[in-house]
Request: fold
Amino acid sequence: MKLQPVALTERVEAIDLMRGFALLGILLINMLTFHSPLSYVDPYSYFDQPWDSEIYAFIDIFIQASFYPLFSMLFGYGLGIQFLRAEARRQPFMPMAVKRLLVLLAFGIIHAFLIWYGDILITYAIMGLLLLGMIRLPSKMLLGLGAVIYILPHLLILLLMFVAVAANPNFYTGIQEVQSSIDAYSAGTFADIFSQRLSDWLYSNGPFNFVILIVTILPFLMAGVAAAKWQLIERTKQYRKLWVFLAVGSLAIGLLLKATPYFIDNNYAFVYLQDIFGGPLLALGYASIITLIAQSGGVRKVLQPIAKAGRMSLTTYIAQSIIATFIFYSYGLGLYGKVDLLTGTLIAAGIFVIQLIFAEVWFMKFSKGPLEMIWRRWTYGKNIEKSNNLKR
Reply:
């Protein structure tokens, strides 16, 4: 038997719902980078229009660094489900998994260098390939090893940052880079934009930053695989006490850590503490709440549009970049550097509403999103896609 993609009847609706919410959060935080040179500024002082400080505080506490961990864990969870299915059917998993991740890498390269530099797909693909070497480990070992990989390096960096703050408590602000970004994205040619996009990608993905990505994203994927092996989402009723504990405990501690720059100090050490340790805890709290909500049939039905956007997560994610860059870059409306946080947030909400409507209409005829069709066709072969894409 040949390994096949997950059928519609095998999908776990709570996972799609989490993906949908994660995509909304990712869009809201990415919107700051779509319309502003966020990589080179101190956001606590850069956004100074009316309502900017309040909106940024909301985004910073409730969204920033909390949805990419959730999406990363879900990516690992999905990979874990595929591994378990292959094992149960005694089918080879590694060749197809490697092929699937290489196709994702191709999508990421196109996205990063031709659309938007803040791509995460390249990172997921590379971390996924690293994860394959550990995927057969027991759940407890995966979770424990992931915790060590995550906590020790970040704790060391955090301690060094607190030492550094004593010498220089200010954020780095690159005035030259800010102006270069505004000039290129708002009024430059496509070649200018490509050059700036490449520069921004290299700035975010240098050797040191890539090591940081490994010790950040890979542990989330490992935790996701461990959770998949335990079937924590599929067996929500069985693990209800655990989910309730995480919903209350992780949410409370996560929010406390996320708010530290506001009631202690917004120097870069506390911002690092906020993002690296507060963000994932808040993500666990969100995941727990969504998992428990998914047990209610009525609420789940109301949230179906968000779950459908999550079903086509690759399409939704890349489409967000295409729409946003058209709005803000010079080859579109050229609004880069010209909108405040309120306007940018409203634009993000409008984009997501459009995506919900698109997903609703698309799934009236098809069982997979458009880019998901391509991904699966390139992974599993043309014949499987013909038999699975159209609804029966």
Observations:
- Confidence is low (pLDDT under 50) at residues 1-10.
